[in-house]
Design brief:
Length: 593
């Protein structure tokens, strides 16, 4: 059976635009000889639609879109994800559904069984779980259709099962000939290996092929990497789509006793796919593509580029402006912006104060020259002095401190927002996850802006991305410019906010490799202070101080710009901590987890 996995990039709420993407993919899949084309979860409205789902007019429009798209399904079947009203007069009003369209009309509907409520997911807010697991017939085949989370409950792969039921096992028990998973699975570094493991385990356990179609693109904080793929009954990969861009993966799937029969989707004994891949497979396409997805640092970089590009595009921004301090964070942000939008659409501004070193200014200028962006210098000395003069009578008799330092950051924020307003360019904030965690950032100053590109990137990873951009043969910017674009001194000099004389970050913070491990353990893994101290050997006072700063600065993070999520747990709507709270980690430092 020739199947196409349509890895599209939907815009949330753009039902008409998303329908056009679906319609074009149906046509392309038919041209490639596919009998079935599969689309991602909620592909008609885009994921995550959030409270758009509470609008009855939205649901009606989604239903009409599916009816209209079904008319294009003649000679080919399509599985289309969409929200729809539930069948019951109790419980939640909606289902998260995937409908098989064939012979010009919607024919069979499959409803998502497992509804996640952890991390960034809140599906129980909107959806009722499917009443049962059903097989979907198509031309004598029995399709086992599942939706995203339905695949994620395998006790042999997942440490702790969150649900009592396993829809994949139930589909197999009911006689499925193959498994199809319509997904909207957000990217995090290292996550795709777990997806592959889940698919392989299901395939080998039941001796059935598994097809996985994932959404691609950025929607608000979330980035979707695509990576749609297919594994055969033996668990071996027979097709893999591109990562971080739309793709149409066409694969011949062995079904109905054809396992191991070879064909265009088979894998040669060498483990490599037979034939060649095609961007737009035509009628003569004879082999599935097996693209190699990026991993680690490279995948983090590509996620940031796609997230920024789509955030600007889907919000209507064509260009960005950002402050360039000569430091590592603004340099990486600038490089990502150039990759995402093109150098002609990026403006960098350096704003030296009396504490800025000559090297910081020259490093910012060199970065701008290397990337070929528009660049301006605006000295903030006069406005800094003016603020100090105006505040002098009120501050009289007090020692200079954080308030005076933050005047500089806020003056820069005012200037950058003025440029943003004047030219319609979105202001990109440049702070990283380490700073945001402990509040080493200024409200209404360097935190001002429309998108925080690095807010889920720990400082140590920022350095790794910078070195990858400069030196890795796979770095697109290295290929584009033929050289390292981030100045060497930017990477090697001690990090500093330069808000007072001879300031460095480590005046206030531990070394970043220590801080980042504390953040990962405390924020992402929810480890206690005692466990962190026992397992790392870090000084107990340092651990407790950093944890206290993380808790105290929740009020800042609630006012921060949205940021792109690339780790297992980001600050934002996936981590819902109270601001006014007094849980004291010191009191439980002697307790076990």
């Amino acid at each position: 059976m020739r199947v196409a996995l349509a890895q599209i990039n939907p815009t949330v709420g753009d039902i008409q635009g998303n329908s056009q993407l679906i319609r074009e993919s149906i046509q392309r899949a038919g041209d490639a000889g596919a009998g079935l084309v599969v689309f991602p979860e909620l592909s008609v409205i885009g994921y995550p639609p959030k409270d758009l789902l509470l609008k009855p007019s939205v649901i009606r429009a989604c239903q009409q879109a599916v009816d209209d798209l079904a008319k294009d399904c003649r000679g080919i079947a399509a599985i289309i994800g969409h929200p729809c009203p539930s069948d019951n007069d109790t419980g939640r009003m909606l289902y998260n559904a995937a409908t098989l369209c064939h012979d010009g009309r919607p024919q069979h509907r499959r409803v998502k069984s497992l509804l996640p409520t952890y991390d960034v997911f809140d599906e129980h807010r909107y959806f009722e779980p499917g009443p049962d697991v059903q097989i979907t017939p198509l031309d004598g085949l029995r399709l086992g259709i599942s939706i995203c989370e339905d695949l994620w409950n395998d006790r042999d792969v997942i440490d702790r099962q969150l649900y009592h039921d396993n829809p994949i096992n139930e589909l197999a028990r009911r006689g499925a000939d193959l498994f199809i998973n319509c997904s909207a699975s957000p990217f995090t570094v290292g996550k795709h290996a777990l997806r592959i493991q889940l698919m392989r385990e299901a395939a080998r356990r039941h001796g059935l092929p598994v097809l996985y179609c994932n959404q691609v693109g950025g929607n608000d904080e979330l980035v979707f990497d695509g990576c749609s793929c297919a594994v055969g009954p033996d668990g071996e990969l027979i097709g893999h789509a591109k990562d971080f861009e739309p793709d149409l993966l066409v694969v011949d799937v062995p079904v109905g006793g054809q396992a191991g029969a070879g064909g265009s989707g088979s894998v040669a004994k060498s483990g490599k796919p037979t034939g060649k891949s095609a961007e737009s497979p035509g009628p003569g396409a004879q082999a599935a593509a097996i693209e190699t997805p990026s991993e680690g640092i490279a995948s983090a970089y590509h996620a940031l580029v796609l997230g920024l590009r789509d955030y600007c595009k889907k919000c209507g921004f064509k260009s960005v402006v950002l402050g360039l301090s000569g430091g590592i964070d603004s340099a990486v942000c600038c490089a990502v912006a150039v990759a995402a939008l093109g150098r002609e659409n990026v403006c960098g501004v350096t704003m030296p104060s009396r504490y800025s070193s000559d090297g910081s200014v020259s490093d910012a200028e060199l970065l701008a020259q290397n990337l070929g962006i528009d660049f301006h210098t605006i000295a903030i000395g006069p406005v800094h002095t003016a603020f100090e003069t105006m505040l002098g009578p009120i501050f009289e008799g007090t020692d200079p401190g954080v308030a005076e330092e933050n005047i500089q950051a806020r003056a820069r924020g005012v200037l950058l927002m003025a440029i943003s307003n004047k030219f319609g360019s979105m202001l990109v904030t440049t702070g990283n996850k380490s700073e945001l965690a402990v509040g080493y950032c200024t409200l209404y100053g360097d935190m001002a802006g429309g998108l925080a590109v690095l807010s889920d990137v720990p400082k140590t990873l920022v350095y790794e991305i910078a070195n990858w951009i400069n030196g890795d043969p796979g770095s697109p910017l290295r290929k584009q410019f033929g050289k390292a674009v981030i100045p060497k001194d930017t990477i090697t000099k001690p990090p500093s906010a330069e808000l007072r004389e001879n300031q460095t970050d480590q005046d206030s913070l531990p070394e970043y490799d220590v801080l980042d491990e504390i953040i990962e353990r405390f924020v992402e893994q929810e480890q206690s202070a005692k466990r962190i101290i026992d397992e790392t050997g870090f000084d107990s006072e340092v651990v407790l101080k950093m944890i206290r700063l993380i808790d105290l600065n929740e009020y800042k993070r609630k006012q921060a710009a949205p940021g792109l999520k690339i780790t297992g747990r980001a600050f934002g709507f996936g981590r819902r901590m109270p601001i006014a709270q007094r849980y004291d980690n010191r009191r439980v430092v002697e307790a076990d987890d």
